[in-house]
Amino acid sequence: MSVSNNLDPEKYLAPSGHVKSKADEGDTTPPIEEFDAKFEKRLIRKLDLLIMPAACFLYLFSSLDKGNLGNAKTLGMIGASGIGADPTGSRYALLNALYFIGYVNWMIPTTLFAKRTKVNLVIGCSGIWWGIAAASTAAVNSYGTAMAARYFVGFGEAGFGPVIPFYLARWYTERDLALRMSIFLFSGPLAGVINGLVSYGVSFIKGSLAPWRLLFIIEGCPAILAGIFALSILPGDVTTTRWLTDKERACAAMSYQCVMTVGAALGAFLPTLVSDVGYTGAIAQVYTLPPYAAAAVCMLVVCWVSDRYQRRGPGMIAGFAFMTLGFAMLLGLSPSQKAGRYASLVFCEVGQFICIPLNLTWAAENAGNESRKAVSLPLVITLGQALAIASGYLFPAKDSPTYRMGSGVCMGLCIWGMIISVIYTILLRRENARRDMVEGPAAGAVPDTATYADKAVGFRYVW
């Protein structure tokens, strides 16, 4: 297992580079050599049981509460029986944007606050907060109160979205991180499937509450329970958590702009795009499921391969290529070519869910140390979410059914993201080669990333 940045390597390494014995320092902490492969695997499995269920449940409900606005729109939230008519689509666009405004405003402050306090407590409390805000959306009776509810959903999720990748990067090594990130983010496309199924089901419920109100209650309340579960189970600091033994503590201590804009647009308008392809009414909710299901499978496969070979750039390039193809098909196919246009939506979803976990993992690995991760991860997400504010305006109702403006903008962003990924990969490879020439191949030594971050001798970038 690699040594994390929280551990002082001088405590374990003698001047010659050999591992010190416990007797040298009078320390009872097991030396590195005692952490054999079987022990490390057992520790990883234990961490998976402690961390991944709570993280996945929270991300599932986060994705549900972020993405259900599009489903609520098709169920009548926007209209005479909801919070008012919206002939131009501008009111819905602003409602969608307010989530991202609340998210962007609070991402970096909450992440820095989490780093200085207890990350697990911030994550759990955030789930409780946005769950209350999401469920409360069922009670709104005006456009103004709906705006406030969406802002507070974004505010609550700002304490989770950028914090959880930082939290996972604290507990998992580079060779384990991308797969765990993809398992965590698997809940995103799964949420799309659940959203479609729940929306389809509530559309048949005839009662005192409108179906769109039931949707917010059904998908908002579980987030509160998930937040409480996270508070009770997620380990806090590695040196104090009650869930690990002393030896396990010692071992574990050693242990996204273009894609976010496109992803936000797809999340907000996928039900609408599916409807315009030709699937209307309740059946439109069912036809949102295959794109998410395909995306989930492809994301796990690509991230497993990425972890296996410790390469992020090729996967990112492939993800952007899928999205570029999808939006090119939307631009090039006529509204009568329904099967082709539906297939394009599948390509778009597959591409974005490949890019999201790899993008976050890439940022975490190349930040160098924990302090830089605490800033770089929320900064990457903040910039992406800032652009995502405009996503609600990319597919206005007046552009139906071709949506040439939105498809063109998204395709341009995907091409730009692919170019950036290629350039970044090349630059990282060249920098690693330069460091190999100056320092010699990096092997065995523990880089002092706690002090020098990615500038430390022996540090190599993941490309």
TrEMBL record:
GO molecular function, one term: transmembrane transporter activity
Keywords annotated in UniProt: Membrane, Transmembrane, Transmembrane helix, Transport
Residue span of region Disordered: 1-31
Membrane-protein topology: Multi-pass membrane protein
SUPFAM superfamilies with a match to the protein in the record: MFS general substrate transporter
Gene Ontology, cellular component aspect: membrane
Transmembrane segments: 47-64, 97-114, 121-143, 149-169, 181-202, 214-234, 254-274, 286-305, 317-336, 342-362, 374-394, 406-427
InterPro entries to which the protein is assigned, alphabetical: MFS, MFS_trans_sf
Top-level lineage group: Eukaryota
Protein localization: Membrane
PANTHER family, alphabetized: PERMEASE-RELATED (PTHR43791), TRANSPORTER, PUTATIVE (AFU_ORTHOLOGUE AFUA_6G08340)-RELATED (PTHR43791:SF36)
Protein name stated in the entry: Major facilitator superfamily (MFS) profile domain-containing protein
Organism expressing this protein natively: Saitozyma podzolica
